[in-house]
Design goal:
This protein is mainly α. It folds into three domains: 85 residues, Four Helix Bundle (Hemerythrin (Met), subunit A) (Up-down Bundle), CATH 1.20.120.1200; 36 residues; 53 residues. The protein has seven helices and no strands. Helix 1 packs antiparallel against helix 2, helix 2 runs antiparallel to helix 3 and helix 3 packs parallel to helix 6. The chain is globular and about 60 Å long. The model has no long low-confidence stretch (mean pLDDT 80).
C-alpha cells in the first residue's frame, strides 16, 4: 500500500465521518457545517486521485456557492438553531436505504471492474474548458442567476418584507 493509498483512505474516512455527522446532526446549522467538511473532503479525494480540475470545481461550485448560500440563508432567516424533526422510524428507514444502496453500488462496481486497478483516462482540460464556456455556458449562467435570486429572497425574508411594495416602502422611510 502506497502513501497515496493511505492518504486517500484517511481523507475518505474523514469525508464519510463528516457526511454521517451532517445527516445525523440535530441542528440544521451544524448539519450544514458538517456538509462543508464532507464536500471539502470529497475535493481532497479528487486531489489525491489526480483530478485537480474536478476538485477545484467541487470547491467552487458546491462549497463556495451552494453550501455558503445555504449557510447565509440560515443566518439571515435566524433559523440556524432550528432542530431537525424526524421520527426514529424515518431515521432507521433512511439508514437501511443508504446501507442497501452502498451494498448495491459496491457489488455492481466489483462485478463490472473486479479487484484490479483500472487506469483512469479522460479528456484534456482544454476540452473541458471549451465545453463549459462554449456548450454549457448558458446553463452555468442560469444556475448563477438562480443562486443570486435565492440570495435576494433570503435577504427579503430576513428583513421581514412580505412583498416588493414593502421593500420599496421600507427603503423610502429610511434616511
Amino acid at each position: 500500500m502506497s502513501g497515496l493509498d493511505l492518504l486517500f483512505l484517511a481523507v475518505g474516512l474523514l469525508t464519510a465521518a463528516s457526511a454521517v455527522l451532517a445527516v445525523t446532526s440535530r441542528v440544521v446549522l451544524h448539519a450544514a457545517l458538517w456538509l462543508v467538511v464532507a464536500l471539502g473532503g470529497l475535493a481532497g479525494c479528487y486531489l489525491v486521485l489526480g483530478a485537480e480540475l474536478v476538485a477545484l470545481v467541487q470547491l467552487l461550485i458546491y462549497v463556495g456557492g451552494v453550501v455558503v448560500l445555504v449557510l447565509f440563508a440560515l443566518m439571515l432567516t435566524r433559523h440556524g438553531n432550528a432542530p431537525v424533526q424526524a421520527s426514529a422510524g424515518h431515521r432507521v428507514l433512511a439508514g437501511v436505504v443508504a446501507a442497501g444502496l452502498t451494498v448495491l453500488l459496491g457489488v455492481t462496481l466489483t462485478a463490472v471492474v473486479g479487484w484490479t486497478r483500472v487506469p483512469v483516462t479522460g479528456p484534456d482540460s482544454t476540452d473541458i474548458g471549451t465545453a463549459i464556456f462554449g456548450t454549457w455556458v448558458w446553463p452555468f449562467e442560469l444556475l448563477s442567476l438562480l443562486l443570486l435570486l435565492a440570495l435576494v429572497a433570503a435577504v427579503a425574508v430576513a428583513r421581514g418584507a412580505g412583498s416588493v411594495e414593502d421593500v420599496g416602502a421600507a427603503t423610502e422611510e429610511e434616511p
